[in-house]
Amino acid sequence: MDYKYIEQLMERYWNAETTLEEENILRTFFSQKNIPAEMEQWRPLFTYTGRIAGRRL
Amino acid sequence: MKRISFQADVLPLKNELFRLALRITLNHAEAEDVVQETMMKVWSRRNDWDKIASIEAFCLTICRNLALDKMRRMDNQVQTLEPGEDAEDSSYAANPEEQTVQRDRIALVRRLIDQLPEKQRSVMQLRDMEGKSYRDIADIMGISEEQVKINIFRARQTIKKEFTKQEKYGL
User: Going by fewer Cβ within 10 Å, which terminus of chain A is more open, N or C?
Assistant: First the structure.
């Protein structure tokens, strides 16, 4: 799979240039289970993972 | 306008409120208290519900204010959200060593988010995790849209810069 598009979006994201729709794409991307290692570290920016997400009140 | 029901419109917001409260207080128990207090406060204002444009924004505003109060009382001890168990899943990492590096990177980003000033943390939470518009965030936080954008920009820039710095010079 080609991650160029996601990389471009991330570049724009850092500069606060992304629209809500584009950030939705990033959120969807980062909620996938398998993403490339070089992207993995940015997961906490977009998702609540592990026990926080699964937490019930 | 549709009549607001506590059961159908307010209760389902619990998890979203919890995430915001947690982002601000950085403490699970305190965040749970904040959600409970928010629910009580929202309920006590039920006579005003008809006049509210967005019950969700209304609840988030109350939640943020209660969380801020709590933080002030908590004496602002520096804490970090615990890394979740998800960190195990470093799909593409080939060996245990690489997996450890990957886990450290994720932990670092989490720490960097937690270390941002509260306003930046809250805008990031509402924008990047909850997917809210600048306008909605401005309403919830009682600041201008311009201020929201500035805070988002600063938060993202800081995380990127600090991450690169720490990667370069070691953790």
Answer: N
